[in-house]
Amino acid sequence: MTTANEATAAGTIGAKMTATLVLILLCNIFTLRGTCAAGTIDGYLILGQSNACGRSHNTEFGDHSLAMPYDDGIFYAFRERSYTTGEEWDTSLGALRAHSGSSGGGRVGAEITLGRRLAEWSDADVLLLTFCSSGTRVSNFLPNVQNLYQPMIEFTAEMEIELGPVNWQAIFVITGESDRMQENSLFQGRVATIRQALADDLGATTLVFARLKSNLAGNFSDGNEGAAAINAAIQQWAAEELSVEVTVSNDDLDTRDDVHYTSDAYAVLGNRLFTSFAGLPISSDLDGDGLVSLRDLAVGKDRLVAANIVRNLGVRVGPNLAASAAVPEPSTLTLAALGLIGCAVRWRRGRR
Q1: Hey, how many other C-beta atoms are within 10 angstroms of the C-beta on 213?
Q2: Alpha-carbon distances of 204 from 11, 200, 247, rounded to whole Å
């Protein structure tokens, strides 16, 4: 015969079991990251000169940027450093915001869309860190040259003190306008040296290049031949090595002063950098959020249909979405959790 205390204890155990199973079910159904574990951060570094810093004005953007930032699961950090004086301009770790730099405040760059795309794609939280120096050549970032490389590594270390360990995934290289004027034949070798140093210091080996404009006008037009040579070098490098990628031609992007991109052009550049990194095809912005992303595949379709579309396209996706795309039915964990919840509820009622 069951005593009142035993019944109460059994009821408490049953209630706790039910609550635990409900939490498991909710985590499996609703989590955007594919896991309830916290603390994992994937790091991405934007490296380069003034176009890496960004020279557009945040007031020129529409709803797809600062007005509607994608800040879920992503941290932004920015530092511009003068390679001659060592003066620094920082935008503190946090949400996406316009930054100040050597050219004044209210500026943004390719991070405006790159960060949001990475946050949507990644199963982990994301740190997008920009370290840039206006007017530099890639040679200024070499590890044996003072004033840039080591301060850049120190900047990454500062972020890890605030956020915890970071798994550095890729380096986005937005530089070369100054290199195309001279010594362009040495560009690839110098970038390779920087890449090896970053691999040693951060563990990231994947490089993604923003292809240089080869049709600059005005005072910069005399370097177009050098830009074409640099583009050819990195294109060949990307063809030979899987962990080196390059954007499609950026000759169609508008500039405001013959060399720095316009606000809309930076938004496009951020998308192209992400697409080159993730291997995702360009499609239509069906959900109207100003971005072309995997979310567009789900417009007007349920999750399983959207997952099957992604699977059938054979594209590279984040681990969470890839896992969901691998099965045409609700996951085994979901069905098992539902069954266990039902059993727990019936068992509890039977003990009363």
Answers
A1: 26
A2: 52, 8, 19
Distance of CA 102 to the CA centre of its chain: 25
Which residues are 90's β-sheet partners?
A: 79
Taking only the tens place, the pLDDT of each residue in 126-156 is: 999 999 999 898 999 999 988 899 999 999 9
- Asked if 139 contacts 190 with a C-beta cutoff of 8 angstroms, the reply is yes
Cα–Cα distance for residue pair 120/199, rounded to 1 Å? 25
C-alpha radius of gyration, the chain, whole number = 24
Q: Is the pTM here over 0.90, yes or no?
A: no
Give, rounded to a whole angstrom, the gap between the first and last alpha carbons of the chain. 12
Distances (CA, A) of 289 to 8, 142, 299: 52, 39, 12
Tell me the one-letter amino acid at 151: P
- Spell 276-301 as b/e; 16+ CB within 10 A means b: bbbebeeeeeeeebbbbbbebbbeee
Extract the tokens encoding 51.
Answer: 């176009």
Task: Report the C-alpha gap between 66 and 109 in whole angstroms.
Answer: 11
Select the more confidently predicted residue: 219 or 28: 219
E strands, the chain, are 41-48, 56-57, 74-81, 88-94, 99-101, 104-108, 125-132, 167-174, 206-209, 244-246
φ, ψ of residue 203 to 5 degrees: the values are: 95, 0
82 alpha carbon, distance to own chain's centre: 25
Residues 152, 141: contact at Cβ < 8 Å? yes
Residues 6+ apart with CB under 8 A from 168: 42, 43, 44, 45, 156, 198, 202, 203, 204
Region 279-294 average pLDDT: 49
